[in-house]
Amino acid sequence: MTPAEAPVRRRLRFGDSLFKGSTIFVSFGLMGLLGAILFVLLYFSLPAWQKFGIWGFLSGTEWNGATDIYGGLPFIYGTLVTSFLAIVIALPISVGLALLINEVRSGWVRNPLTVLIDLLAAIPSVVYGLWGIYVMAPFLNDHIEPILGATLGKIPVVGALFQPTPSAGNMFNAGIILAIMIIPIITAVSREVIAIVPRDLREAALAMGATRWETIRMSVLPYARSGIVGATMLGLGRALGETVAVAMVIGNGLGMSASLFAPGYTIPSVIANEFREATAIGLHRPALLALALVLVVISFVLAAISRALVGGGFSVGLARTMPEEPLPDEEKVAE
Amino acid sequence: MATPSIGFLKGELPLDDRAWGVKGRHVKLSKWVTIAAVAVLAIGALTLGGCTKSSSTSSGAGSGSFQGVPLVGAGATFPQPVYSQWTQAFVKVEPNAKINYQAIGSGGGIQQFTAKTVDFGATDVPIKSSEASAITEPYIEFPTVLGAVVVAYNVPGLSSPLKLDGATVAGIFQGKIKNWNDPAIASQNSGVTLPDLPVQVVHRADSSGTTGIFTSWLATESPEWKSAVGSGKTVQWPTGQGGNGNAGVAQAMTQTKGSIGYLEYQYALTSGLGIASIKAPDGTYVAPSSDSIAKAGQSLAFPITETTNILNSSTPGAYPLASTTYILVYTNQSSQDKAQTLVDFWTWALTAGQKDVSTLNYVPLPDSVAKDSLNEVGKISVSGTAVKPSSSVQ
Amino acid sequence: MSIVTTETHGKPRSIAVRKFKSRAFEGAMWFAGVLALIPLVLIVYYVLRLGLPAINIDFFTQTAPPPGVSGGGMAQAFVGSAMMVGMATLISVPLGLLTAIYLTEYGRGRFASATRFVAEILLSTPSIIAGAFIWTTVVLLMGSFSAIAGAIAISVLMWPIIARSTEETLRLVPNDLREAALALGVPRWKMILRVVLPTAGAGIFTAIMLAVARGLGETAPILLTALGNDFMNLDPTQPTDAVPLRIYNYAQSAVQTWHQLAWGGAIVLLVVVLSLSVSARFLSDRQQRRLR
Nearest by CB to A279, which of B134, B236, B238? Predict the structure, then answer.
């Protein structure tokens, strides 16, 4: 290197470190954002944790502004019940759909199906809620729930789930709406996981005379199983956090009813409904933020588990990730 | 080597596009990306630059008169129809006074007022001492209009409106009376065939002055209610589904057959729900109407305290569940324009605005109360100087 | 005809049974597909049917009508949404791009995987949390609800989407391009800005479109930060209305005229969001085909 080149090199290095530094700074910012969210939630919810204790808050059933006693159990219950119902309904449909997209040879079916699933994913939550209140809920309340109540409701133990009440908003409706909303994400991730199954496995099974169902059962599903579980976790995470559509159809009832047809309440709904009026004096706002913290921690855990199961490569956007190639290293390529 | 520069915006290809390994069309896409980015930047810049805070830019009626500035208020849903009517009408008086009232419930009104995120708060029940202790600066609290909480129901096919007394209503809302043909209801409504229909209670999901009024009344009518549930803007409802705001309760009720709920009068009327006549202290059943509400309003008087209410008024023919609603404003304002707009708007509302509230089935304040409220508004000041209403609202 | 059997669990099964099972399964797959799409059809149908009567010039030019008064529109909501999502885009695009560039071009080791993990967590964080967080910080600090608070809350949601989506697109850019540029002496930052980003151009655009579609449809964050407004507002420091917020409020009322407006708003939202998604997919497929 001649002395004449030296200043140029220094200039290049400066631009490089500036740029690189700014990308690192921004990435730190992203982590800082998550940290700030966790900190704010924890700090402002501390009074509630201190007053009720962790177990006391999570198991408390009274949510009373007059006595300033808050317990999160009814909301945890409602959140879990509706999300569980959503998964039970959405999982078979999503896996079936994902298999369908992979099995069908014709692009004429596969591509429109993929686009339509994307559309389902893109519909805003408030439109789901609006449609849910005025189209879906009346239909379910008037036609489906009486039938379920008359049939399943008579079965000894399980029947308690299906006791009809006239309530317009109930947990069943919320579960159905959630199921519709999480089908796209479970399908999308399952689809990718199933697509990655090596063809040799499939071909080996076919070569031995297996039918299509047997092929899928023997070579695809076992291979894709952990990925599908991961996809379910992602769907579950989405279901747990869904605020607006659920708040509009769940009925906002304070109790913990055994019947799915009774009104219920979820953590995101109560935060949305009560946050603007929650005072800092007293424990109302700390209690709401404590619930928010519970929600964040649960979605954190679910995200971690699903990442481990699916692998970090599931796509967020529409680009299909390729296996990671090492990117060119600056030191080796530059002078 | 030649790096592509601004030339690519003109659609020029780099010197040797094969060195890039892609076809030249990628350049066109980059051009669109750039144009889109510039467009977004332009919109953003125009928006950010569009701070319209001036009070004198708009040309309104009378170039010399005060034009008003936008204000933000939040709180009770009880008076929302009236406040909506008032804010829409006031824009014609002061064209730049776009008063944005968001009905988030009385509890929300008090909270946002305390947090100073709004210019005025609205609540149906007076501030409690515990809430007042969190407010650090002096404020005024004054009633604006009279209305009523009604017990509404969605029971099709009834031949006449139902009559209910406090104990029965308490029993229904506690979940003890579960069917519309229960003897407790039937005994007060001989001559009306009641259907075999389960009762579905609808209450408020948010912190509500309407709830405060309703539960206070229930607590006086039923000792059992008082000990089991109590009263307040939020209570632990033993049963039922919750709606957001009076509007949400109305919506849930219209969709639930057999529902019963408590609503401000106008909401029940416009939703087509049945409205019950309530047993007054003298034993007669009174239906809500402008007349019966006005009779109850006669007992409203300053000073406004924590327990001020016009429930169960002793005046014959008064509706037992009538109520007023209050506005909260800080006395010491920092912005002259905002203070002027506040004074003008509320002066207008307490004088000219009272004339049209009956079209929405609300009732004007008694004259003495309106005068006292105007006196309160007169306390609003900037740097110690009281703000007088503009000529346009005198 | 000889019966070909398989031994599973020691029990021979006839081929007819196996074929039947397979056919039944295929039927179930198709049934699942149809079942998944029925809601989509129903939603689009009802939104169109109930919302089209509301669409007229007034709907786009007039502001909120008082309860029960017919006519009026959602002009203030359209302007508010555009303003807030516009500002959110201005905030989150540079942040998202820089994060993505870090993850693909510079990131090695634990910090990079931690960043990626954090982005995924933020992606799946419920949107109401963003709203509560921004209220406790921005709204309280500013002393008022505002459009800028709403924009910041939306950008909390958009940033991770843009970051992860762009990261995937950047990974698809062939390494030869990078190596060629570096070999020719181009500084790394210039190589990223002038080679990688333009090549990935459509993919980045797609990522932004997806994030914008998401941002336009979000209600929960603006519920707690922008409050809403019945009047037109262009001042970012004042409360502002937005289309999803307006639909949310109108839906939870018993006012028929408001319901009509809500369905109209739903149509507009659907049209905008769905067309953004479809174009994003179309652009993305084209981009991937070109890069492969």
Answer: B134
